[in-house]
Amino acid sequence: WSMLAMYRNMLKQQRLNLLKNDIISNITHELKTPVATVAIVLESLENFGSQQKEDLRKEYIQIAKNELKRLTKMAENILTSSLLEKDQKVSFKSLELDVLLEEKIQSFKPILDHQNFEFQYLKEGSDFSIKGDWEKLGLVIFNLLDNAVKYSKGEKNIKVKLNQSGGKINLQIQDKGIGIPEAYQKEIFEKFIRVPQEDVHDVKGYGLGLAQVREILQLHKGKISLESKEGQGSVFTIQFQKL
Ligand code: ADP
C-alpha cells in the first residue's frame, strides 16, 4: 500500500513540476516584448538628438510609457494570481475592435521602425463593435503581430487588414516572412509546438503564443485560419461575429 502511495505522490509531484514550468514559460513569454520595446525606444531616443524629431520623440516616449503600464498591470495580475488560474476570468464588454487594433499597432511602431519594416494598415468600413475582453483580445493581436515581426527574415513587410462582410468582422495579419510548412499548419496552435528549423529558432519562444490565441478566440466564439507557404509568408485571419 505504501509503495502505491509513494508512487501516487511522485506522479503528483511530476504534474506540479510541469504546471510550474508551464506558468513560468507563460509569464516569460508575456514579459519579453514590452521589455524589448522599451529598450528600443531608449536606444532610439539616445540616437535622435536633433530637434526635428520632436514629434517622434514624444510619440516614442508615450509608447514606452504605455508598455511600462502594461508591464505593471501584468505584475499586478501575477500577484493577484489571475494569470495562474486555470479558469481565467473573462470580462465581456462591448468594444471597438479597430480602436484596440490601432492601439496595438501603435505599440509595435518602435520595433517596426527599428527593423525597417514596410507596414500597411487597411481599414474598410466603420463600426467594428464586438463583445469581448479588451485585455485578452489585445493579447491575441499582440501575439500575431509579434510573430509576424519575429518570423520575417528577408522581406520585412507586414499588412494588417480590417473589414466586414455579412455580419462578420475580419482581421487579417499578413507577413512575407519564412512561412509555415503545410505539415505544421494545424499543430502550431498546440502548446509548445514550434516548427523545427535551425535558422528559425535562434528566434526565442516557447510555442505558447498561438495556443493562447486559439484559447482566447474560443472563449469569444471567434475563428482563426491560416494560409501559408514556406519561404513566402503567412496570413492569419480572424473572424468575429459583429455585435
Ligand atoms: P513561439 O513564437 O513562441 O514559438 P507561437 O505559438 O506563437 O510560439 O508559434 C508557434 C510556432 O509557429 C513558431 O515557433 C513558429 O515556428 C511558427 N509561426 C508562428 N507564427 C509564424 C509566422 N507568422 N511565420 C512563420 N512561422 C510562424
Task: Give a verbal description of the structure.
The chain has 243 residues and is of the alpha+beta class. Helices cover 49% and strands 19% of the residues. The chain has a 5-stranded mixed sheet with strand order 2-4-5-7-6. The protein has a two-stranded antiparallel sheet with strand order 1-3. The model has no long low-confidence stretch (mean pLDDT 86). The site of adenosine-5'-diphosphate has 21 residues, from helix 4 and helix 5.
Give the topology.
Blueprint: H1 2-48, H2 54-79, E1 93-96, H3 97-114, E2 118-123, E3 129-132, H4 134-150, E4 157-165, E5 168-175, H5 209-219, E6 223-229, E7 233-241
Parallel strand pairs: 2-4
Antiparallel strand pairs: 1-3, 4-5, 5-7, 6-7
Helix pairs in contact: 1-2, 1-3, 2-3, 3-4, 4-5
What compounds are bound to the protein? adenosine-5'-diphosphate
pLDDT averaged over residues: 86
Counting helices, strands and paired strands, the structural category is alpha+beta
Number of helices: 5
What portion of the residues fall into strands of 2 or more residues? Answer: 15-25%
Could you give the distance between the termini? 58 Å
Please state the oligomeric state of the protein chains shown. single chain
Shape: globular
Summarize, please.
This protein is an alpha+beta fold and 243 residues long.
Spell out the key features of this protein:
two-stranded antiparallel ribbon, 243 residues, globular, alpha+beta, single chain, 5-stranded mixed β-sheet, 7 strands, binds adenosine-5'-diphosphate
